[in-house]
Amino acid sequence: MTAADILRLRIALAAGLLFGLGLAVSGMVNPAKVLGFLDIFGNWDPTLAGVMATAVPVTALFYRLAALRDTSLTGQPLPPPPARLIDRKLVTGALLFGAGWGMVGLCPGPALEDLVLNGRAWIFVAAMTAGMAAHRWWSGRSRAPAASMAQVPE
């Protein structure tokens, strides 16, 4: 393992720990808190709005800073900006994500943290993993052989 690999791993670990700490401190690993935010006609909890009000500007700032660079801090090339196309796949994915989030009160990051901290989210994580595997399988089926999943760089 090279020094650059070790640096990348340390940066990834630090970023993950910071993200996880933010989720824990804000209470977003508690499904009841998230569901309380979504319950606008009942016992509404505005905490998630505060989390988003701080997260969006910070994210926007770092996206702006990243746009000024060609490589990451570790020297890796930065991916191109995401497509701005709103298509059927994006809308379908957003609807599925929102439905799952609304039913359970968890999304992938908090679910993994809840699984590690409390062990409660294992059914959600198993369903999420199965959904990702099904998507990967389905996407591989619907592509021409020249563009199969095995040939897509990760």
Structure description:
With 154 residues, the protein is an all-alpha fold. The chain has one domain. The protein is 66% helix and 0% strand. It contains six helices and no strands. It has helices spanning 3-26, 31-38, 47-67, 88-104, 108-117, 122-142. Helix 5 packs antiparallel against helix 6. The longest helix is centred in the first third of the chain and has 24 residues, at 3-26.
Outline the secondary-structure elements.
Layout: H1 3-26, H2 31-38, H3 47-67, H4 88-104, H5 108-117, H6 122-142
Helix pairs in contact: 2-4, 5-6
**C-alpha termini separation:** 19 Å
**Arithmetic mean of pLDDT:** 85
Shape: globular
Q: Beta-strand level of the residues, as a percent range?
A: under 5%
Q: Keywords, please?
A:
154 residues; globular; 6 helices; mainly alpha; single chain
Brief summary:
The chain has 154 residues and is an all-alpha fold. It contains 6 helices and no strands.
